[in-house]
Model the fold of this input.
Amino acid sequence: MSDQSEPIVRYTAPERANHWMVAILFILAALGGLSLFHPYFFWLSNLFGSGTWTRILHPFIGTLMFLSFLGLTGRFWAHNRITAADRQWMSQMGDVLNKRRDRLPEVGRYNAGQKYLFWVMVATMILLLISGILFWQPWFAPYFPIGLIRVAVVVHALSAFVLIMGIIVHIYAAIWTKGSISAMTRGTVTAAWAKHHHPGWYREVSKEVKQ
Amino acid sequence: MALQSLDVIRRSATTTASPHQRETAEVAKLIDVSKCIGCKACQVACMEWNDVRDEIGTNVGVYDNPPDLSGASWTVMRYSEVETDRGLEWLIRKDGCMHCADPGCLKACPAPGAIIQYGNGIVDFHQENCIGCGYCITGCPFNIPRISKKDSKVYKCTLCSDRVAVGLEPACIKSCPTGALVFGTKEDMKHHAEGRIKDLNERGFKNAGLYDPPGVNGTHVMYVLQHADKPEIYHGLARNPSISAWVSIWKGATKPIASWLLGIAALAGFVHYITVGPNEVEKEEKE
Done:
């Protein structure tokens, strides 16, 4: 197998467009959300014009992010079922981080880290949407009891923290694993990359090609 | 006025010290519910001094008018008809900001300098910094701040901070015809309340007392209540108000810790990259 072989398609154009739409909306939602999260970050509200503009725009950006994420959820749901091998893979995080690939169970289209991240995103996006609507001023907040709003602000901040943490891991994993980023920019990966990082998936796709 | 003032103890969403060179005595408004006749002169004085006019509403069947606080009504009279050991009583409570020593609104506010606490105890909203998020409403244990439908900014009683700053008493105090409203230093007001409570005790109100709730470290608006053992009969006055535990979790140590963790996570990635190195396909596999 040589690196000059035909690249393998990992993501189609609609999948890539959808991913980047979510990514851009996430960055905007995170910047706006962080500026209201703690005074450390309030200066970020200047990126949106002012604190007031941040307050106005953030919920709309967040809702759009949720809606575009629904597209990704539908596209990738079936690829992310957790198996026994995945649980084994997660328990050997030390081996993962130190690139001792030979000690780990075989990886399919996605490794367990990617799968768990997917489910973390599904869960936090739902929590963020519901809790966010509960204290969305001035449209919805007045309709909800104060006790519920107090829980919602905590759930919203906590889910946002977990999601941002997850995305830090996601972005780092893409930088760390050389050859991954082209999957989301050009849609393709090299055969060597697929064989090395996702051997189970490589076997499947090469079978399909032969048939 | 906030930052020119030299007696600010706390500003919302600010992690550095506030200008507090000047030492000022703590002030308080004392509302003697037993002397209030419900004339609403204080409501009118408040509208007049602050030059705000609420929309003309409709009669809701009771004296409460306007029926609730709003962006333009910073104090309202709450009327309750209650059966007590003394028979039917008509209890009238002037509702508005309590100016807590531990203000939940200020704690919750994410906008720097939108809420100010002065050395004299007044908690003031500075609408020019307000972003209209409503977090102060979430933080307030007394259900006081209101978002204006006109401009999406929050408003509430300022305890006439502009008048007090130049040595005048709040407008409502000026207008009270029965002396139910008194203003002065917090110490003097407590002393005054003692006399009133003694008088009420002598007149058979065994449970008369001062409402200065310790759960918010005391307030700078205090009530003399005929039935201090049952504050809730005064239109739901909170028995033991304090900042909700949820708000404390939300605004306490959690967020600075979470902020640091985000930074540490990003840093950990960098350290991992330069120590372990990138996860690459080895040369022999490529060939």
Remarks:
- The first helix of chain B runs from residue 41 to 50.
- Chain B is about 30% helix and 20% strand.
